[in-house]
Write a structure and sequence with these properties.
With 316 residues, this protein is an alpha+beta fold. The protein has two domains: 106 residues, Gcn5-related N-acetyltransferase (GNAT) (Aminopeptidase), CATH 3.40.630.30; 163 residues, Gcn5-related N-acetyltransferase (GNAT) (Aminopeptidase), CATH 3.40.630.30. Helix content is 31%, strand content 30%. Strands 1, 2, 3, 4, 5, 6, 7, 8, 9, 10, 11, 12, 13 and 14 form a 14-stranded mixed beta sheet that branches. A hairpin with an 8-residue loop joins strand 3 and strand 4. Helix 5 packs across helix 8. The model has no long low-confidence stretch (mean pLDDT 94).
Amino acid sequence: MTTPAVAVRPYAADDEERLLAIMRAAEPDNPPPMPGYIAHMLDALSEEQVAIDVAEAGAAVAGFALTTRYFDAADPGAYTLQIVVEPEQRGHGAGRALYDRASAILHDWRAERIYTSVRDDGGPGQGFAERRGFESTGRITRSSRLSTSTANLEKTQAAAARVAAQGIRIVTLRDMESDRIQDVYRAMNEATKDMPSSEQSTDLPFGLWRAAFLDSPGGGAERFWVALDGETVVGVAPLTLLGGGAATNAFTGVVRSHRGRGIARALKLATIEWARANGVDYIYTGNDSDNAPMLAVNRDLGYEQLPPSIEMVKKT
């Protein structure tokens, strides 16, 4: 049987359903974003460096590549590349064709460092990247999943009670005055800068931040929890809906002055209680393997470990 030739073309609006199906097949442990997410983010990133290319084998879409600037890296030379191929289509040239196209784009963008992540599950991703000059950075993202119905809440409830006794309130962004959104944005950027990373972080542009956490399908102010000490924003925890009765802890962070007081646990509790009340069966998250405090919180809650991801980089 002759293998169909592979052709690569730019993403088209009617590709989204097929790309979400490929994501489900390639990473069955992790639900894909809500329908409409790809179109939304492309619109939000219309003036930024972003490209989605699609590989076709005959008449079938076999995979895609997402190439972007590393938006919160302080150095403009950093970029990211993610290639996803339908498992049944692997080994027939789709990944190679997508990589060649992405490499040409990154050359035009003058990329100096290209980051990707591959699942550490014995699959072909790591070998594919290594053959193209990528090396492990040593950073590992620990992916995990919480069943909301069986979560262990005892420690988290006790921490939330201590936080409340300190006068710290947990509210949603929808409960706050609209002009406080910049305070929330600044607090999240502060917390982000202390997360383990291979790049020095800078503030995510406000428009991209809003597009990702508030305006996207699955996002929203009613699922964005904020910790307030008086009127000062000291912690944040947005919860983003995914398909299939799932959600993701998009971020949980506390400003430097208020760490070690149980605020992250109180924020996590709010997300779980909302999920239980609104038909969300599973909450997914990913944490750097060096982020010991948050890994401890998730372990106490009963998060189930999923295959981790290895960060890799290619220097051009």
